[in-house]
Amino acid sequence: MADGGHPGVALAALLLFWAVLGAEADYALYKDAAQPVEARVADLLGRMTLAEKIGQMTQIERLVATPEVLRDNFIGSLLSGGGSVPRKGATAKEWADMVDGFQRACMSTRLGIPMIYGIDAVHGNNNVYGATIFPHNVGLGATRDPGLVKRIGEATALEVRATGIQYAFAPCIAVCRDPRWGRCYESYSEDRRIVQSMTELIPGLQGDVPKNFTSGMPFVAGKNKVVACAKHFVGDGGTVNGINEDNTVINREGLMNIHMPAYFDALAKGVSTVMISYSSWNGVKMHANQDLVTGYLKDTLKFQGFVISDWMGIDKLTTPYGADYPYSVKASVLAGLDMIMVPKNYTQFISILTGYVNSGVVPMSRIDDAVTRILRVKFAMGLFENPYADPALTEQLGKQNKLPWW
Three-class SS of residue 83? Predict the structure, then answer.
């Protein structure tokens, strides 16, 4: 050639240019584990449609979940209610295979956002056949041994992860003030100081927070730990005459001195989620209590994880239950709830909340706050990097040499 060039060099340069351009086009910051959590959250949130955001706020029961339901509605979370199992006597592998099947459906969506699966592992992974069962909280509180409780949390985390599940609805940090309450056995003690000490279950489940940790931030120390849930916010153990799901009549000072302190400890230990109580405080249903959920928990205590409803908790805002479901959706989301344990009526919930956002009744800022918190937990726990079960952990179910007294 007259200019002395070589056509092969030019072609190689062109191919390299297009390869680099293509790689840059495929790069998504939220998929980059080297980036800070908050940057990943902001990047992903900015890519999401309203439907994808509301899907993240929706937790459904496994019985109504299909791959099509999960994909079409961008579902962010599933759970097993009491007795909801793959089959009677299902093995850890069968549990993990079921959870992974649901996860594959969620990962196949446009943005590939993994779901988080929750279960009531409240005294061991008690829904699973062959799991180690520990005493209920009232018995553990009687030990006065926070170290033992932490080790129980560590064992429970492994047995939950053995089934592919990443989220335990524990601990219950209610302060039972009346033994007539039917759920008093879920409380560590009538003494709030003992309940505070028993929040050591949280680092057992999630891992120990690092030095200079900021209270209120969610923390999970890797794929062998699970997301914990402090519940039930707040005052569930103080209802009049111990009537379940009823009214806690006490002034603000009393609420703060008796029922709130264990939440201070839970947040300091990095608890990732808080579940709201069915009960009321001075006549105001907790699932609609914006003052305590947003004003105090989020704004004053600076909780940065996500707030979740209890099972059909928003339905119970009306009498009879579900009598005005649109009101229940609006009141709970505006109060500051981020994820709703629907658990089966997901189509109505999604439709109603979508309508409220489109009409301006629920501002997009409230939706963005909720989804930011949910994504923050998912990124903090490493769910995007490890969305599936670790087959090596299935043998941990019921394994004796990890028990706290071994």
Answer: coil
3-state secondary structure of 283: coil
| Residue whose C-alpha is closest to residue 129's, from 398, 403, 404 | 398
Residue 217's closest CA among 334, 303, 277, 286?
303
Cα 218 from Cα 41, distance rounded (Å): 13
Question: pTM (2 decimals)?
Answer: 0.94
Query: 3-class DSSP state for residue 332?
Result: helix
Torsion over CA: 56, 58, 59, 64 (sign)? negative
Amino acid at 352: I
Task: Report how far residue 373's alpha carbon sits from residue 358's, in angstroms, rounded to the nearest whole number.
Answer: 21
| Band of residue 11 on the pLDDT scale cut at 50, 70, 90 | low
The yes/no answer on whether domain 33-402 falls in CATH 3.40.109.10 is no
Neighbours of 304 (CB within 10 A): 19
Q: What is the pLDDT of residues 76-130, one digit of tens each?
A: 999 999 999 999 999 999 999 999 999 999 999 999 999 999 999 999 999 999 9
Domain boundaries, the chain: 33-402
Map residue 233 onto helix, strand or coil: strand
CA 393 to each of CA 57, 84, 87, 131, 205: distance values in angstroms, whole numbers, following the listed order? 29, 22, 20, 13, 15
**359-368 pLDDT per residue, tens:** 999 999 999 9
